[in-house]
From TrEMBL, chain A:
Active site location: C210 (glycyl thioester intermediate)
Record Pfam families: E2_bind, ThiF
GO biological process, one term: protein neddylation
Record keywords, A-Z: ATP-binding, Ligase, Nucleotide-binding, Ubl conjugation pathway
Native source species: Anisodus tanguticus
UniProt-listed PROSITE patterns: UBIQUITIN_ACTIVAT_2
Protein known as: NEDD8-activating enzyme E1 catalytic subunit
Catalytic activity: ATP + [NEDD8 protein] + [E1 NEDD8-activating enzyme]-L-cysteine = AMP + diphosphate + [E1 NEDD8-activating enzyme]-S-[NEDD8 protein]-yl-L-cysteine
GO molecular function: ATP binding; NEDD8 activating enzyme activity
SUPFAM superfamilies attached to this UniProt entry: Activating enzymes of the ubiquitin-like proteins
Annotated pathway: Protein modification; protein neddylation
GO CC annotation, single: cytoplasm
Automatic annotation (TrEMBL), chain B:
Main subcellular location: nucleus
GO molecular function: NEDD8 activating enzyme activity; nucleotide binding
PANTHER family the UniProt entry points to: NEDD8-ACTIVATING ENZYME E1 REGULATORY SUBUNIT, UBIQUITIN-ACTIVATING ENZYME E1
Cellular component, GO annotation: cytoplasm; nucleus
UniProt-recorded name of the protein: NEDD8-activating enzyme E1 regulatory subunit
Organism name: Anisodus tanguticus
């Protein structure tokens, strides 16, 4: 009863990729060519080699992808071992990306995984453009927002404000917390980007300092008092480091003292760590579930072998098991995935003046701005060599630097936001010079 | 901290040390270690279950290298159980791992007592006939059973246990047990010491909302013939009354009081879920009753007597704007009442135990305390025998699942998976297993599925041709990502079953990997 394919490694996947179906994507062309393209041509970037990342690398390797890369700045910790199944006790202290890549390659022959042990901001923007699809296994809103802004910066619109298909960089994003999680697909310009639905991730509520100082009521208040107020009072100038056990121990014992003083129960060392490090509980099963959805959706987006998720899945396993698919809609005025923020300029304006202008622009509020135009660095804040090389451009008119193009897209990176809430981002600007070339200046449609 | 405690830190924050201890005591049997089985067990080994026994009679084939992480190149031709067991052991050396090279179907037929040694059996990739047989064996021996199956882009997870009772269900959103609409004498006395009309602005803005609401509710009842607000208009006026007490508009405690005013309006007494539990026939306890039902019987007595229609008080309060002193004293008032209620419940439990001829001390104080504290959140889950579901599913439900827009695909997949198993009995292969017979298989599967629906007394017109086609396309393939999903769900439910925390999924879960509109079917 042996079939010709039963001796093939792709025995099971072939059923999905080689056979036609009726419930498939419009681009689906089943056959060995498709299987080979997934193997040879498609390049997938996995962001994060943690709870989701480990699962994603395994699942993607078994979904026919051969060219994978993974980026993660963290090293392995003991607390990872209850779910990050590619790591062993002996790996503690080693870079996650490197160990994860090695383990999957050892087990799944033929797959190539290139690890990057660095911050996502350390890679040039162009690095991200080399991938067919980006899969996010992250635990921070800031990192998601950054990758989203990078992927959306590649998006170009045609003259009718429709996204150019070849510039769409698809993303698949997963996230978990305890028994809960989400998976979504982002097709910039087509489905809502991370920023369009940023309200799904409300900012974390911090305790007011006056509560901590004057009216503590809970164990967490006592801990945050020791962590945020008492530490600085006692250790002038020394920064608190949550990874130093002595530091944590000190905060714990101060919190205990304060709790006793006020008659507040419940301060434990474990809670102290949880509050100070903002620990999110995490288990293997939820990571497996969410990563599986993300990997399957990645395969579907690339191959068209089935329908795709439209476009957001929430999962909750606390009470029974609930999954829900919601079709969110784009924010047409989104400054990240829209056609670009319209900036009207005089032809005489210098690059320096242009950069200053972005700082005060109400939609942008960008500081430490670097500017690129059609892949060329016009001005770079870092590294120092590049800064020096591009510094002389600052006094030149932007119009000249853009080869006197009357209107075009300029990419800028920098820090967005006010005060201490700044975060790295990439923005696309639609620069229009006044009084040249185009007479119809109504370029703002949809911007 | 010791290393194991650090290793499990992120999960201890979810199910605590008691939950972890239960996992470490559990002995788990896995039937078939293809990707679905391996992935299920992987998540459990990582979490630190006591022991695993992997049962599989097959050898590793080249095809397995493309979907199973627990085998590798060097394992081809070797026992799959042995290879998977060794790789699973690598994940956590605290787990005792062993394997048995035996075909699960054979074990089910010839050695039913084999399963009695385990806490729980995870049966993966079994076809209908073996499922039914194993289910009878495990039900008889009172062994917890969970089925998991991956098939192309679909999957199925089904728990089977006669009864599973939960004390610590840890629901996400549950109304705080504050008794604002029904304060007990000590709470009332405590609030009497506070004057909301104080002119001291600092005291005024540090009065916790519990006190504000109890006092204002009392004031309202006084002027409304003893009733609390019930109509929308009354509720609005109640909020206005709260607002009128504010000295300045930025008093956090009063803002919180307005937001929490619905807690005053909520009905007194117990909710429908708990009512159903205390009305269950199991509360007629005898010496064979479980601890849970003995405690429920005691709880019912408490509610009818000392509780005055209410459960024992939970005893905790949420954080709220307040002076430290008032908050701490308020907390103590709630804790004292909870402790007093618990002592009454405990006495009733001990009396009942004596009455049914059991040692009155046979249920620990800690258990009764936890029960008393969680009385409002108790949960009871029961599952039909798989055989009963298969032979006589709840008909209106099945009909709904077949035609409803939201359920349609999942309902169709459920029927087609069962039809595929019937198909396999008749044709000795699964539909679409071989490329050359696709067209015949599609029409044969359709005939089989229509026959099945007719047997179940269900209209077959809603069965989608596209879905039949899709099932044949899958050809019984076991895709890794689908297996990872199904295994993830199965392992999650195993953890709930063993820790006796959280609420189990009810019914049969159908994973729909086509558009992710998965469903729980209550059949």
């Amino acid at each position: 009863m042996a079939d010709s394919t039963s001796q093939s490694r792709s025995r099971d996947l072939d059923k999905l990729l080689l056979r036609p179906g009726n419930l498939v994507g419009s681009t689906f062309e089943p056959g060995t060519q498709l299987r080979e393209d997934i193997k040879e041509i498609v390049r997938v970037l996995v962001i994060g080699a943690g709870g989701l990342g480990c699962e994603l690398l395994k699942d993607l390797a078994f979904s026919g992808f051969r060219n994978l890369e993974v980026i993660d700045m963290d090293r392995i910790e003991v607390t990872n071992l209850n779910r990050q199944f590619l790591f062993r006790l002996g790996d503690v202290g080693k870079p996650k990306a490197e160990v994860a890549a090695k383990r999957v390659m050892e087990r799944v022959s033929g797959v190539d995984i290139k690890p990057h042990f660095c911050r996502i901001e350390d890679k040039p923007i162009s690095f991200y453009n080399d991938f067919s699809i980006i899969v996010l296994g992250l635990d921070s809103v800031e990192a998601r927002s950054y990758i989203n802004s990078v992927a959306c910066s590649f998006l170009e619109y045609d003259s009718d404000d429709n996204p150019r298909e070849e510039t769409i960089k698809p993303m698949v994003d997963g996230g978990t917390e305890g028994f809960k999680g989400h998976a979504r697909i982002i097709m910039p310009g087509v489905t809502p980007c991370f920023e369009c639905t940023i309200w799904l991730f409300p900012p974390q509520v911090k305790f007011p300092l006056c509560t901590l100082a004057e009216t503590p009521r809970t164990a967490a208040h006592c801990i945050e008092y020791a962590h945020l107020i008492k530490w600085d009072e006692v250790h002038s100038g020394k920064t608190f480091d949550p990874d130093y056990p002595e530091h944590m121990q000190w905060v714990y014992s101060e919190a205990v003292k304060r709790a006793e003083l006020f008659g507040i129960p419940g301060v434990t060392y474990s809670l102290t760590q949880g509050v100070v490090k903002n620990i999110i509980p995490a288990i293997a099963s939820t990571n497996a579930i969410i990563s599986a959805v993300c990997s399957l959706e990645t395969l579907k987006i690339v191959s068209g072998c089935s329908k795709t998720l439209t476009n957001y899945l929430t999962y909750n396993g606390v009470e029974g098991l609930h999954t829900k698919v919601t079709e969110f809609v784009r924010d047409k005025d989104c400054i990240v995935c829209g056609p670009g923020v319209l900036i009207e300029l005089e032809v005489s304006i210098t690059l320096k003046k242009f950069i200053d202008l972005l700082e005060d622009h109400p939609k942008l509020l960008l500081t430490r701005v670097s500017v690129t135009y059609r892949g060329d660095n016009l001005y770079m804040q870092a590294p120092p060599v590049l800064e020096e090389m591009t510094r002389s451009n600052l006094d030149l008119p932007l119009f000249e630097l853009m080869s006197k193009t009357p209107t075009d897209i300029v990419h800028v990176t920098g820090a967005a936001g006010k005060g201490d809430k700044k975060q790295s981002c990439s923005r696309k600007l639609r620069v229009v010079f006044k009084g040249v070339g185009v007479t119809d200046m109504d370029m703002a449609g949809g911007a | 901290m010791a290393e194991p405690k650090v290793k499990y830190d992120r999960q201890l924050r979810i199910w605590g040390e008691q939950g972890q201890a239960a996992l470490e005591k559990a002995s788990i049997c896995l039937l078939n270690c293809g990707p679905t089985g391996s992935e299920t067990l992987k998540n459990l080994v990582l979490g630190g279950v006591g022991s695993i026994t992997v049962v599989d009679g097959s050898q590793v084939e080249v095809g397995d290298l493309g979907n199973n992480f627990m085998v590798d190149e060097s394992s081809v031709g070797e026992s799959k159980a042995k290879c998977a067991c060794a790789f699973l052991q690598e994940l956590n050396d605290a787990v005792k791992a062993k394997f048995i090279e035996d075909c699960p179907e054979q074990l089910i037929e010839t050695n039913p007592s084999f399963f009695s040694q385990f806490t729980l059996v995870i049966a993966t990739q079994l076809v209908e006939d073996s499922m039914v047989k194993l289910d009878r064996i495990c039900r008889e021996a009172n062994i917890i059973l969970i089925f998991a199956r991956s098939y192309g882009l679909m999957g199925l997870v089904r728990i089977s246990v006669k009864e599973h009772t939960v004390i610590e269900s840890k629901p996400d959103h549950f109304l705080d047990d504050l008794r604002l609409n029904n304060p007990w004498p000590e709470l009332r006395r405590f609030t009497e010491t506070i004057d909301l009309n104080t002119t001291d602005a600092v005291v005024h803005k540090h009065t916790p909302y519990i006190i504000i609401l109890v006092k204002i509710a009392e004031e309202w009842a006084h002027t409304h013939g003893g009733n609390l607000p019930s109509t929308r208009e009354e509720k609005r006026r109640f909020k206005d009354l709260i607002k009128s007490k504010m000295i300045t508009m930025d008093e956090e405690n009063y803002k919180e009081a307005m937001e929490a005013s619905y807690k005053v309006f909520s009905p007194r007494g117990i909710g429908p879920n708990l009512q159903k539990i205390i009305d269950d026939s199991c509360i007629e306890v005898d010496s064979n009753s479980s601890d849970f039902w003995v405690m429920v019987a005691a709880l019912k007595e408490f509610i009818a007597n000392e509780g005055g229609g209410e459960t024992p008080l939970e005893g905790s309060i949420p954080d709220m704007a307040s002076s430290t002193e008032l908050y701490v004293n308020l907390q103590k008032t709630y804790q004292a009442k909870a402790e007093a209620d618990f002592l009454v419940v405990e006495q009733r439990v001990r009396n009942l135990l004596e009455k049914i001829g059991r040692d009155p001390a046979s249920i620990s104080k800690a258990n009764i305390k936890s029960f008393s504290k969680n009385a409002r959140k108790l949960a009871v889950c029961r599952y039909r025998l798989v055989e009963d579901e298969f032979n006589s599913p709840v008909q209106p439900e099945l009909q709904k699942y077949m035609t409803d827009e939201d359920y349609g695909t999942a309902g169709g997949l459920y029927i087609l998976l069962r039809a595929a198993d019937r198909f396999a009995v008749n044709y000795n292969k699964f539909p679409g297993q071989f490329d050359s017979e696709m067209d015949e298989d599609i029409s044969r599967l359709k005939t089989t599925a229509v026959g099945l629906l007719n047997d179940l007394g269900c209209n077959s017109s809603a069965l989608s041709e596209d879905l039949i086609n899709e099932m044949c396309r899958y050809g019984a393939s076991e895709l890794h990502a689908v297996a990872a999903f199904v295994g993830g769900v199965a392992s999650q439910e195993v953890i709930k079953l063993i820790t006796r925390q959280f609420i189990l999924m009810s019914g049969t879960f159908i994973f729909n990997g086509i558009d992710n509109k998965s469903q729980l079917l209550l059949l």
